[in-house]
Specification:
By secondary structure, the protein is of the alpha/beta class. It is built from six helices and seven strands. It has one domain: Rossmann fold. Helix 1 packs across helix 6, helix 2 runs parallel beside helix 3 and helix 3 packs parallel to helix 4. It binds NADP nicotinamide-adenine-dinucleotide phosphate.
Length: 199
């Protein structure tokens, strides 16, 4: 199996790569330090990545940025960060990647707990998460050739507590390897249209 992991060197992505490495060949992609360079905010960059990578069995995305800040101070430009990266960036991976996915392949995208359990400053990220989840459940019923699509919504990761902990008081952090298991279920399982929560 040939698996393309976008965001592979990140906190979550590196745990996902570790979890999936026994399945087959993993191609790691991101803007820097990867097998293949891609910026998911650019459709041209995404297209170029797929042309370089060729046919694959699975697309896994653990990349997607958002601005964190108060709604009262959120400008349309700041909100666009999540729109262009976490929301459209991931959806464009689906739209542009479909022709490169082999029959019965899969796509797994990343969302996050903020869409279900809000925190202060998290509205823009929550917006993107909810949009990705809705797209996944709708797209699943019409993807061709047995291709499946799911998303994974982790709680704050234990590995990220130092960075994000103060924003997540009272949340039960999960190890990145637990979130990575949901990606394994999506890649190797039979389900489609799911949002796997790791809460
Ligand atoms: N950490 C958590 O507690 C947590 C919890 C729930 C959900 N999530 C979600 O999981 C995702 C990953 O989080 P993380 O903490 O693992 O982040 P991270 O450590 O910053 O890693 C992000 C990865 O994505 C790549 N990336 C970022 N922007 C990109 C772009 N425009 N195009 C291509 N690659 C890009 C980065 O590499 P380059 O910089 O080289 O591009 C890096 O490999 C995020 O969407 C986050 O919201 C995280």
């Amino acid at each position: 199996m040939k698996i393309l992991v976008i965001g592979a060197k990140g906190t979550l992505g590196s745990a996902v790569v570790e979890e999936l490495k026994d399945i087959g060949e993993i191609i790691q992609a991101s803007r820097t330090h990867a097998d293949i360079k891609v910026d998911i905010t650019s459709p041209e960059s995404i297209q170029q990545m797929f042309e370089e990578v060729g046919e694959i069995d699975a697309i896994v995305c653990t990349a997607g940025a958002a601005h964190f800040g108060p709604v009262e101070k959120m400008t349309p430009e700041l909100n666009r960060i999540a729109v262009e990266s976490k929301l459209l960036g991931q959806i464009n991976l689906v739209l542009l990647g479909l022709p490169y996915i082999r029959d019965n392949g899969s796509i797994t995208l990343i969302t996050g707990i903020l869409m279900d359990d809000p925190i202060v400053n998290g509205a823009s990220s929550a917006m993107a998460n909810g949009g990705v989840r809705a797209f996944v459940s709708s797209a699943a019923i019409e993807l061709p050739r047995g291709i499946r699509i799911n998303s994974v919504s982790p709680n704050v990761l234990e590995e990220s507590l130092e960075k994000y902990g103060p924003s997540f008081e009272g949340f039960k952090a999960v190890p990145a390897k637990d979130a990575a298991l949901a990606f394994r279920k999506s890649v190797l399982g039979a389900q489609t249209g799911q949002s796997y929560t790791v809460y």
